[in-house]
Amino acid sequence: MFVRGLLLVALVASANAGFFDDVK
Fold first, then answer.
1. Of residues 3 and 18, which shows the higher confidence score?
2. Is the dihedral of CA 2, 4, 8, 14 positive or negative?
3. Residue range 1-17, pLDDT digits in tens
4. Count of alpha carbons within 13 angstroms of residue 21, beta-carbon side
5. How far apart are CA 21 and CA 17, in angstroms?
6. pLDDT value at position 3?
7. CA distance 6 to 3
8. In the structure, what pLDDT confidence band is assigned to residue 24 with cuts at 50, 70 and 90?
9. How far apart are CA 3 and CA 5, in angstroms?
10. What is the pTM assigned to this prediction?
11. Would you state the pLDDT for residue 4?
12. Which of 4 and 19 is assigned the larger pLDDT?
């Protein structure tokens, strides 16, 4: 359960990074 949470956080973080890169 905890590992799944970390995976979700990492996925969201990478998605946000890609989104901001596209905006710039």
1. 3
2. positive
3. 789 999 999 999 988 88
4. 6
5. 6
6. 93
7. 5
8. low
9. 5
10. 0.50
11. 95
12. 4
| Cα–Cα dist 1/18, whole Å | 26
Pure H helices in the chain: 2-23
One-letter amino acid identity for 4? R
Fill in the amino acid letter for 15. A
To which residue do tokens 């905890």 refer? 2
Angle at 15 between CA 17 and CA 1, to 5 degrees: 125
- Amino acid letter for position 19: F
Question: Tokens representing 23?
Answer: 């905006």
